[in-house]
Fold this protein.
Amino acid sequence: MKRFFSGILLCVCMAVALITGCGKKEAIPLFTDGEANFIIVRSADADNETINAAADLRQTIADNLGITVNHKPDSIAHKDGQLEVNIGITNRPDSQAVYGEVSNETETNGLDYIIKQKGDYIYIIGMSNRALQEAVDYFAEEFCSDAGGSVQEDYHYVYTYTGEEEKAFSINGDTDLAKYKIVTPKYNMSYLVGREVETLNDSLLVSNGVLLGQATDWDEESEYEIIIDQTERPGTPKTEDSDQYRIKVEGNKVYITGGSNEATAVAVKEFNKMVTEGGSVDEKTDITGSYAETVKNYEDYYAMTFHDEFDTMDRSIWHFYTGTNTMLSESDCNTDDPKNQWIEDGKLYMKTTKEGDHTNSVHVRTDNSTWFRYGLIEASVKMRQTSGQGGAFWLLGNTSQDYYAEIDIYEATMNAVKFTPLSWVSKSISGVNSGPYYCDFKGDIKTYEGGVAGDTYYRFENDDKEQYFHTYGIEWTDSYITGFIDGRTFIRIDTTFDERAVKTFNNFMQIIISQGALDSGGATKANETTDWENNYSIFDYIRLYQTSNGEIRNR
């Protein structure tokens, strides 16, 4: 992608240089004697992509120059005379005004960005996460490639995307897609589909220069929509079986759907291919395809390697742990009693009961059957937890190894779920402290509404958690872990920057699901308000998808 300096600004600057001194601005040094003269600042509640962009700049400078730059949220007060490089919109003076310069009162020019120096601040702002990363890369390349890097006083650079009309994607002959929204299911969407939606949105940004609005099927219907998956929108075309997918245009609506998560994901990939190739769709478009045949066109795509649809409780897969549950409560007992777990209508029900002075819980593992490394794993679950009750879906490594992982895909209490990847040391190793270790990620993520700085809670609206099925899962590779809910990225962490993380998160893990009584881990203890009759976890399915990079084996 070519970057260019605004021709008008450059010509004006050159024309009036002798009069205004435009060419005599001071150079502001960024480094002196092997130390940085600036700090990196981002919003205290920035999204993960903005945080990653700020972290990338810091890491690039460390890699290229061996210089460590301090990285702080904007909740830290500014010190007069301290030069700051602000990544994204912050609470600093003029940040919103600088954003206004590049937004031009619209949010559809999604690849535009600005870099501007003013007073103690250098502002780097993009109209999208992709644009922000481009801006950070440009700044690093131009000003941080050597220890003599400096920025001219009042530096002002605007990148404006100018796409090639003939290469833009069109719907009914129209390439101005700013009016369109991408509509997906509010609940229970698979991340197999969601990750393709993320890619499609990025492709439309590149091909047409616009950042499409995102909506769910619970939002008010609009005239122009790209509708993905089985939604509540009327007119969604039917598929004959789980293998079939459809791409169909009806007026100003584009429908992309399949008879299964796998088929829908491939349909989105096919649509994305049209976008990247500068194709088009119109009212004549009605494409029917086969997942099994189409997926062959995509080298090394995700394939299902493990699943349980819970038509029965398969004890060749699941190992019931029984006995005192010392991990959670001394008065809790794990059981396989039918009162606490049963199959009904193709779903697994798990429930906690109280008997006298103790409680009975359910805890099952694949430790005697299935272990895997890398992949996309998700479960569709509906749950209700009252005071002192909690459900969990997690992965655990081999505890006999020196280093082993625990990834809590969710720990559910009341109306929230928490995601936590942990590194553990199971033996005494010289120079290494034993116990849980958070691999430095906890303090460097977004603070979600209602949460505490550094936590990873996802809080549901009203009683949504217990009224609907939701998908929870992770995509685990050799370099990152993405946590998602309802097919949308919740958090992504890098597992390569930390030596202990590398040792931990590259080993095989088992699958665990549980429903139990809690009196630790931040959960509220059972009390007089605890509803022992109506606390549960209901599992519709658990599915694991892997590429050739993933491995699965029996114990």
